[in-house]
Amino acid sequence: MEELQNNYPHVLTFNEIKKAAETIEDGIIHTPLCEAKMTKFMDYNVYLKCENLQYTGSCAERGIRNALIGYGNDIAGHGVIVPSHGNMALAAAYHGVSLGIPVTVVLPENTPPSHAQRCSELGADVVLVGDTLQDSTFYAKKVLRDSHQLLITSDDPYVMAGLGTVGVEIITQLPETDAVIVPVASGALLAGVLIACKKLKCSCLVYGAECSKAPKMMKALQSGGPVNVATFPSLADGLSAAVAGPNAFATIKGRLDRMLVVDEMYISRALISMLECERLVADGAGVCAIAAVMQGLVPELRGKRAVCVVSGGNIDSGRLARTIQRGLGANGRLMRFAVALPDNRSGLEQLAKIIAEESTVLKSLVTEQMWVHSDVATTWANVVVETVNDENAVKFKDRLRDIFPSARFAITDIDEKHKVGVR
Amino acid sequence: MEELQNNYPHVLTFNEIKKAAETIEDGIIHTPLCEAKMTKFMDYNVYLKCENLQYTGSCAERGIRNALIGYGNDIAGHGVIVPSHGNMALAAAYHGVSLGIPVTVVLPENTPPSHAQRCSELGADVVLVGDTLQDSTFYAKKVLRDSHQLLITSDDPYVMAGLGTVGVEIITQLPETDAVIVPVASGALLAGVLIACKKLKCSCLVYGAECSKAPKMMKALQSGGPVNVATFPSLADGLSAAVAGPNAFATIKGRLDRMLVVDEMYISRALISMLECERLVADGAGVCAIAAVMQGLVPELRGKRAVCVVSGGNIDSGRLARTIQRGLGANGRLMRFAVALPDNRSGLEQLAKIIAEESTVLKSLVTEQMWVHSDVATTWANVVVETVNDENAVKFKDRLRDIFPSARFAITDIDEKHKVGVR
Q1: How far is the C-alpha of B58 from the C-alpha of B55, rounded, in Å?
Q2: Under an 8 A CB cutoff, do B324 and A313 touch?
Q3: Which among A221, B110, B169, B405 counts the fewest CB atoms within 10 Å?
Q4: pLDDT over threshold 90, residue B231
Q5: Which region among A61-70, A349-358, B414-423 has the lowest average model confidence (pLDDT)?
Q6: Which chain B residues have any C-beta within 8 angstroms of a chain A C-beta?
Q7: Quick check: A180 pLDDT over 80?
Q8: Residue B205 CB: number of other CB atoms within 10 A?
Q9: Rounded to whole angstroms, how far apart are CA atoms B136 and B109?
Q10: In Å, how far from its chain's centre is CA A379?
């Protein structure tokens, strides 16, 4: 590794990826590349590279395993320390045990309890510290001075090379690939896939996709180098690094075809499409590439074969349930409104009639008499109904407003005039 | 088909399955057979035959396609009518369009709106009628006298033969299979898989798994023939047929190794394990075989290779979200309790302290002062917290009871002493 450390920032080469592919061959799953079933409703031929089907549910395993084997003797005694949002931690816990290397993972305190639990079950020492990945990384750097552990981050050259094997598999599995879209956290996966795909098929377009809540790679490209960006809570928490990795950036710069910035709303939509159409569980970061297609950010790929890398599927079940419900709300399939009912039986009856006749399904109804500013003969009802589709939702809304002009609806996507790349 | 119709009930033969395999070859997906990741935590080598990854999300496509092609000229003009809970309907809608055959599907009125919508989008005429599959079938039979459509049910010999191709694929994909466990609705899938597997590998054990809320096949085996059983709402609504199919029963009788009856609770557990460990979406019916293993119903298969057929993945998103939340509740990971807080600041503070110190996460807290029977200086709080695991839940409970002896917990699995086949 001497030459790598002397050469900072490190620009990844295809040779490193090729070597990584041999190194990790026996320890990772060659995940399926399958045609997306949602393609039948879209103008794109979308394929999914299902890295969510790795044993610990993400492509991070490829990078971590390559690093653990690559550093070999350097880490045999004291082991490694890995700051992570979850995917790197789970991968390190699993492969550390299988290779007999002690692993400490450092997770932000807001990591879902089930992830921390899983790392611990797999055999890692788990430390919960700080609010962000930067806090965790800072803590890890401080600790390792005494512990003599080796720090592994996603910007590590071995990790980037391991991640690049995703690109090798894509071009091998589908040589006709026209474009690959890759979710971007710190950029390591994008860097690896970019070098692999461009080498194996020079006409292949490569795009990065990141969430608008943490647009660090777009900002780095605009600024000519990694800079810190403000980050906001996002469903794609795996992408919430505040700054691009220096090695990843150096590798990507001048080689990437385009960087895409995806709205949060399309991430929840994509997540639900994955569940409903593909029957696959992916996390918010994992669906970022698909979300970019759904948002209509790549019109030039209409009719072409676009591979979306589904980088991971580690979403906490509780969060998944909440996401589905919010997603149904955002799509207008769950609709929330408040309506003033006169205090006589016909008020509720009229409401019930509209609900029944429009084939919507009542989900909840809570009445409020105490804190109401309207007249005392009125009861406010807070109602949630499930609708069949957008059309049904709009019709229901119109009809309700005819009878109850004071009805107030919670804002949903269908009110906004977003254009979706879906027929 | 003459010989079939004259020979009632019809006992399925391997030749019919072989012919079906050739007939449907080009129109269905050869779904993956993969090692279950949850196997690492169990004493069994469980494999999953992922029929949830068919285009419309279930193995019903195999049966329906074989019937639509097999009946050929009989249905070219008037088309077919298919009463269904969902999977058969979706399969018929999809393959009907692809083969140019008009399809009417009859669904019970409580079918999730998204399923009916999907059938309609795929091009089928959709009729919603009655409360149960029996009502839908009764309606379909009445209508077709005038419409001259052909009725296709799951007990159709062509359908059974098509479903049997699942068994052929299992033995081809994993010749070392020791046992196959198959979810049982009316029994057609079990009949097909049974005949195929026993023919191709006579030592292969074949089990059926059905839900205790509709144990029609167990009852039929005990009674020597199909009889109606009382059915209750279940997460595995796809299995809620009240009576075994006569053809399926005649095929299964005397050949089946064992019938397993699974508790509802293990179906929701299995569904969550599929999401969390396998990153696959399956419906309640689809996880019935896995649930049987988790419930410890097949101890004789410890250490052996057991293939669980994941028959389908058509679960409505809203229902999926609810199931996850109930499942988390059943597993003790969401815990609900009511506690009497004295009306002074220390009451809430003590509660908050226990929640924080035990690393549980507060999900909701609603206070109630009006309808309380205890003294007026007390506020009841209804609380939901998320716990890390069973151990954490038990510890939290003990500690809360020490401070608040009147605390009342909603009943969860961990209170019951069920034995699970999980280490």
Answers
A1: 8
A2: no
A3: B405
A4: no
A5: B414-423
A6: 32, 34, 37, 52-53, 55, 57, 113-114, 116-117, 272, 275-276, 279-282, 313, 317-318, 320-322, 324-325, 327-328, 333-334, 359, 361, 386-389
A7: yes
A8: 20
A9: 9
A10: 42
| pLDDT confidence bin for A327, thresholds 50/70/90 | confident
Q: How far apart are CA B128 and CA B106, in angstroms?
A: 6
B281: nearest CB among A57, A279, A334: A279
From the list B279, B313, B359, which residue is nearest A313 (CB)?
A: B279
Separation in Å, CA of A114 to nearest CA in chain B: 6
- Can you tell me which residue has the tokens 């029996």? B134
Which residues in chain A touch residue B280, judged by CB atoms under 8 angstroms apart? 279-281
Whether A272 and B317 lie within 8 Å, measured CB to CB: yes
Q: pLDDT tens across A9-49, in order?
A: 999 999 999 999 999 999 999 999 999 988 877 889 999 99
Q: Is the pLDDT of residue A373 over 70?
A: no
Distance CA A262, CA A297 (A): 8
**Per-residue model confidence as pLDDT tens digits over B205-227:** 999 999 999 999 999 999 999 99
pLDDT per residue as tens digits for the range A245-270 = 999 999 999 999 999 999 988 998 89
pLDDT digits (tens, 9 = 90+) for B100-112: 999 999 999 888 8
Q: Specify the residue for token string 């997540």.
A: A271
3-state secondary structure chain B: CHHHHCCCCCCCCHHHHHHHHHHHCCCCCCCCEEECHHHHHECCEEEEEEHHHCCCCECHHHHHHHHHHHHHHHCCCCCEEEECCCHHHHHHHHHHHHHCCCEEEEECCCCCHHHHHHHHHHCCEEEECCCCHHHHHHHHHHHHHHHCCEECCCCCHHHHHHHHHHHHHHHHHCCCCCEEEEECCCCHHHHHHHHHHHHHCCCCEEEEEEECCCCHHHHHHHHCCCCCCCCCCCCCHHHCCCCCCHHHHHHHCCCCCEEEEECHHHHHHHHHHHHHHHCECCCCCCCHHHHHHHCCCCHHHCCCEEEEEECECCCCHHHHHHHHHHHHHHCCCEEEEEEEEECCHHHHHHHHHHHHHCCCEEEEEEEECCCCCCCCCEEEEEEEEECCCHHHHHHHHHHHHHHCCCCEECCCHHHCCCCCCEC
Cβ neighbours of A87 in B, within 8 Å: none
Chains A, B: CB contacts under 8 A, how many? 87
Residues A186 and A63: their CA atoms lie apart, in Å, by: 13
The chain-wide mean pLDDT, for chain A, equals 87
Rounded CA separation A373/A365 (Å)? 19
**Which residue is associated with the tokens 């068919």?**
B54
8 A C-beta contact, residue B207 and residue B256? yes
The region of weakest confidence among A120-134, A296-310, A339-353, B176-190 is: A339-353
Using a CB-CB cut-off of 8 Å, the residues of chain B touching A287 are: none
pLDDT value for A422: 35
Mean pLDDT calculated for residue range A62-86: 90
d(CA A358, CA B114): 15
Q: Which residues in chain A have their CB less than 8 angstroms from residue B386's CB?
A: 113, 318
Of B113, B282, B388, the CB nearest to A388: B113
Contacts of B318 in chain A (CB under 8 A): 324-325, 328, 333-334, 363, 386
Best probe of the B interface among A61, A117, A279, A387, by most B CBs < 10 A, is A279
Please report which confidence band the pLDDT of residue A358 belongs to, taking 50, 70 and 90 as the band edges: confident
Shortest Cα–Cα distance, B204 to chain A (Å) = 28
The C-alpha atoms of residue A314 and residue B279 are separated, in whole angstroms, by: 8
> In Å, how far is A4's CA from the nearest CA of chain B?
36
